[in-house]
TrEMBL record:
Pfam families: HATPase_c, HisKA, PAS_3, PAS_4, PAS_9. It comes from the Bacteria. Keywords: Kinase, Membrane, Phosphoprotein, Transferase, Transmembrane, Transmembrane helix. It comes from Algoriphagus lacus. Residues 251-321, 378-451, 641-715 form the PAS domain. It catalyses: ATP + protein L-histidine = ADP + protein N-phospho-L-histidine. This is histidine kinase. InterPro entries: HATPase_C_sf, HATPase_dom, His_kinase_dom, HisK_dim/P_dom, HisK_dim/P_sf, PAC, PAS, PAS-assoc_C. GO terms for molecular function: phosphorelay sensor kinase activity.
Length: 993
């Protein structure tokens, strides 16, 4: 079975492989294909052997089956024989008819089987063995028949005794028969064994053969396939060549006929480039006759700019690097003109492979070239225009997504086209601002649905630097698919960042202007050239309580409640400021009333004019309205106030005027006029010092001039001066000049003011005289009083010394009181004298070195300081201007107090310091004494004011009063700072000038 499968497989493989079938036919054609033949022979032998063996194996099997059958038959005969014997024996001992019949039947069958087996007998050896069987069977059958006869013819016993007596013979025949069976069977089994061995050998040989055959088949198939393929290709090539040759032969025939008649120029050209044959068309094209052209080389008539390329191609043809070439080039015609041609060049080779000639096909492309050049020019122009406008361009196949951008497109976002590759519509989406994509898509969809013809979208693109570039994309669907879908779109891509920023600026400006207009407290209304309201700022809105509404001009007045100054009558159209301005009038501070929707009436000052552009065209009109309700009220109040002021100004007893800083008299009050019998025209506008009052003397005038000058510098000036009254009598006035400052601190005007002080002056003079008299008296009195006092004291002291202890104790005490009182009186008188002297010194102010003054005082107080263990410190005191004696007295009093009012258990420590305060000095005398309670800090400077009893601290209460008087004489002030219990600090100032 296995063998059969293998065979079937191989056979089907061999027979059903088309390649093999084709290959076979090829192999049989190719005698020279040795490999294939050997392979075929080996294959055939192997196949023959295989099939032969296969056949033999089948015969062997058949034979073996036959032998097996024979053995079976022998076994059957033998078994039949044994059965017959059993039945014979049955009859022999039972004499029953049935056993006899059976014996006879078996005996008969036995004979038939043996006879039948004779057909199976083959070969002499078997024949001999069969003969033996037949003989021994016959012997045996005869014997058995004889025994049956005995049994039938005699008694059983007699028969049995005879049969037993024949036992040796029975054994002999039986043994002979059994041997015959055995021999035949042995022979047949031997034959069967032999056949089996042969079969196995055949199987083995065929299996090996199968493998070899398989390998051979694979090798054969592969080799054959390769060889066949090669061969097929070679053959195909050869066939092709033959075909080409055939065609070429045909073409050559056709060529020569068509060559001459060809509509395009044709030429055969030699290796050197010489025209060997030319057709009519070429001659016509170049303007040469055939005779003229043949003999020329193509190099001679080729434009030098094209020659190199042509020669290159020709060489490549010669080198068989190319089979043909095509180029556009220029020939010179006979008349020298240039003609553009398209040249197709091929080389023709002889059968032996040598070069034959070039064939040149020459087509006049001058018209096309010119058209192309024109087109190119136009394209260039367009490109230049596009480049000039700096526009990017794009082409987009909506269906395929194929996209083309120009270099400018890429440049706009800072790239080159190459850097953006591969370019698709996604390139755009990648760089576009994500917030703009949706808008762009919406616009695009409108284009696709045909809702809009053009795609126009401003969007932002990310520049290479990271910033956003505003671009304007405009495009249009230029072609549609058959089923109405958009196909090709073309468009431009323009950088509009600059415009965008300008637009931003404009928007900002507009927003700025609007914001500014809204912040103005002036109402602004604008109408356009048609007289339609265009702008209504916040203040206007607030004035009306109404928003801007486009209504006819006739209705403006009533709609917006524009009233006359009476606040009741509506304005006529021609009176409305905006209408007037629109009509070309120059409206200036026109007072109108506006009634607010709330009913309140505002007074408005309106000014306006036409708006014209730079060419003078009317653009509209603008009116600015200032709400003057408040200022009008204030104005009225001011008028009222001025009236009142004028009344006061003129009716006051003082002379009051108004000067410019340069001294020009602007105004003088009635009092001043009446005083000198003047009218305003006499003095107003004149320099003040030239006015009548001051003409009393040139010194007076000069002093006034310099005083005005000082006042113009910001100083307040006051002095007494005599001026003329109407009778030219000198009258003393207390005169002052008061500067008026503006917010920047500059003097804007000077107020001259004078009041009659003649009486005061007179009174003061007499007072001064009386004072002087008094002082003289006080001085004389105190001086004169001192003399008797001194005597009283001396005599009392004499009395005390001389009679001390001689009188009674009371008398001593009285004397002591008298001495003490007299001494105190002496001091008091000295102090009074000091006080009265202050300011009456006959000395003038001088420079005083305070260090020297204090040094003196140090000497003066040295004993006291020593006794008390006190110190007096001072350092770098200033040099001041003043009267020396009073200044010394000032310090002496203060130092004396500092020592006197020391704390009992603490040595006095006195420090004198000076501080420069620009226009004055500030000096201080500080001690560590008992201090002064805050409630007494002012009174202690009054005369005779004391805080202690004379028992506690002796004194007159005049010391600080003297100090105060001295300081004030020097235009200063004095005060005390103190920490009660830990010391006082007496401060005073002295003006530097
Ligand atoms: P007198 O010293 O003669 O009493 P003054 O006019 O000098 O008079 O002083 C007035 C009063 O001021 C003094 O009675 C004293 O109480 C107080 N006084 C003056 N100087 C000092 C000082 N340095 N410390 C404390 N108290 C002082």
């Amino acid at each position: 079975m296995n063998q059969e499968m293998n065979c079937f497989f191989l056979l089907s493989l061999l027979l059903n492989t088309p390649t093999l079938q084709i290959s076979m036919s090829h192999i049989l054609k190719r005698k020279e294909n040795k490999f294939l033949l050997i392979a075929l022979v080996v294959f055939a032998i192997s196949a023959a052997t295989f099939f032969f063996n296969l056949h033999r194996y089948s015969e062997n099997v058949t034979e073996n089956i036959a032998v097996e059958r024979k053995i079976t038959q022998i076994d059957k005969i033998y078994n039949n024989y044994l059965t017959s014997i059993i039945h014979k024996r049955g009859y022999q001992f039972g004499l029953d008819k049935e056993s006899l019949d059976r014996f006879l039947a078996y005996n008969k069958t036995n004979q038939l089987l043996i006879n039948e087996f004779s057909k199976e007998v083959t070969g002499p050896e078997m024949e001999k063995l069969y003969e033996e069987l037949v003989h021994s069977n016959l012997d045996r059958r005869d014997l058995l028949a004889r025994h049956i006869a005995y049994l039938d013819s005699m008694t059983q016993e007699a028969a049995l005794s005879i049969i037993i007596s024949e036992n040796p013979e029975i054994l002999k025949t039986s043994l002979a028969l059994e041997n015959a069976f055995a021999n035949l069977k042995e022979y047949l089994e031997g034959e069967s064994l032999e056949l089996e061995e042969t079969g196995e050998k055949l199987t083995l040989v065929n299996n090996v053969g199968f493998v070899i055959l398989g390998l051979l088949v694979v090798g054969f198939i592969t080799g054959t396939f390769i060889q066949t393929r090669k061969q097929t290709l070679l053959e195909a090539e050869k066939e092709n060549q033959e075909e080409i040759l055939r065609i070429t032969r045909n073409s050559e025939i056709q060529f020569s006929t068509s060559f001459q008649n060809a509509a395009i120029g044709m030429a055969l050209v030699s290796r050197e480039g010489r025209f060997t044959e030319v057709n009519r068309s070429l001659c016509k094209l170049l303007g040469y006759s055939e005779e003229e052209l043949v003999g020329l080389t193509f190099q001679e008539i080729t434009h030098p700019d094209d020659l190199f390329t042509d020669l290159e191609y020709a060489q490549q043809l010669l080198d068989q690097k190319i089979e043909s070439y095509s180029m556009e080039k220029r020939y010179f015609k006979k008349d020298g003109e240039t003609v553009w041609i398209n040249l197709n060049g091929t080389a023709v080779w002889n059968e032996d492979g040598s070069f034959r000639h070039f064939i040149a096909q020459i087509q006049n492309i001058t018209p096309r070239k010119l058209a192309f050049e024109a087109l190119q020019d136009q394209k260039n122009r367009f490109e230049n225009v596009i480049r000039g406008t700096n526009a990017g361009t794009w082409e987009w196949n909506v269906q395929t997504g194929e996209t083309v951008f120009n270099e400018t497109w890429a440049e706009i976002i800072g790239y080159s086209l190459k850097e953006l590759e591969p370019i698709s519509i996604q390139t755009w989406a990648d760089f576009a601002h994500p917030d703009d994509l949706e808008r762009s898509n919406e616009i695009l969809q409108k284009c696709f649905t045909g809702e809009s013809e053009y795609y126009e979208c401003e969007c932002r693109m990310r520049h290479r630097d990271g910033h956003w570039v505003w671009v304007l994309d405009r495009g249009k669907v230029m072609s549609w698919t058959y089923d109405g879908k958009p196909e090709k779109m073309f468009g431009t891509h323009i950088d509009i960042s600059k415009f965008k920023s300008l637009e931003d600026i404009l928007l900002q400006k507009e927003a700025f202007i609007n914001a500014m207009l809204d912040t103005l407290d002036v109402g602004i209304v604008v109408c356009d050239e048609k007289g339609e309201l265009k702008l209504f700022n916040r203040t206007t809105l607030a004035l009306h309580g109404l928003d801007s509404k486009n209504i006819p001009q006739d209705e403006w007045s009533r709609h917006y409640h524009l009233l006359k100054e009476d606040g009741q009558t509506f304005l006529e159209k021609e009176e409305v400021p905006l209408y007037r301005a629109w009509k070309g009038e120059w409206v200036e501070n026109q007072i109108i009333c506006i009634r607010h929707t709330s009913g309140e009436v505002y007074y408005v000052s309106a000014s306006g004019s036409q708006i014209r552009d730079e060419l003078g065209n009317i653009q509209g009109a603008v009116v600015a309205m200032k709400n003057i309700t408040e200022s009008r009220k204030i104005g009225l109040e001011l008028e009222e106030r001025e009236r009142k002021f004028k009344g006061i100004f003129n009716s006051t007893f003082q002379f009051i005027g108004f000067l410019d800083p340069d001294g020009t008299l602007v105004e003088a009050n009635q009092t001043a006029m009446d005083f000198a019998g003047l009218k305003p025209a006499d003095v107003v506008g004149k320099k003040f010092w030239d006015c009548y009052w001051w003409q009393i003397s040139t010194e007076t005038q000069e002093k006034l001039r310099s005083a005005i000058h000082q006042a113009a510098q910001g100083e307040f000036i006051q002095y007494e001066v005599a001026v003329w009254d109407k009778e030219k009598n000198p009258v003393t006035i207390l005169f002052n000049l008061k500067p008026l400052f503006d917010s920047a601190g500059e003097v804007t005007a000077i107020i001259p003011e004078g009041r009659l002080v003649q009486e005061i002056v007179d009174a003061r003079k007499s007072l001064e005289e009386k004072n002087k008299e008094l002082e003289r008296f006080a001085s004389v009195a105190s001086h004169d009083l001192k003399e008797p006092l001194r005597m009283i004291v001396s005599f009392l002291q004499l009395l005390e010394r001389k009679y001390k202890g001689q009188l009674d104790e009371k008398a001593d005490q009285y004397i002591h009181f008298a001495v003490d009182a007299a001494q105190r009186m002496n001091i008091l008188i000295s102090d009074l004298l000091d006080f009265s002297k202050v300011g009456n010194e006959n000395t003038t102010k001088e420079e005083i070195d305070l260090n020297l003054i204090i040094k003196d005082q140090e000497g003066y107080f040295s004993q006291l300081l020593n006794e008390s263990g006190g110190t007096l410190d001072f350092a770098s005191l200033p040099i001041i201007t003043g009267k020396k004696v009073p200044i010394s007295l000032l310090f002496r009093n203060l130092i004396a107090n500092a020592i006197k009012y020391r704390k009992p258990d603490l040595p006095p420590k006195i420090t004198i310091e000076g501080k420069d305060c620009v226009d004055h000095w500030e000096l201080s005398v500080t001690d560590n004494g008992i201090g002064v309670d805050s409630e007494y800090r002012e009174v202690i400077f009054e005369m005779f004011k004391r805080l202690h009893t004379k028992q506690e601290y002796p004194g007159t209460g005049l010391g600080l009063a003297v100090c105060k008087k001295i300081v004030e004489q020097h235009n200063g002030k004095i005060w005390v700072e103190s920490n009660p219990g830990s010391g006082s600090s007496f401060h005073f100032t002295l003006r530097k000038s």
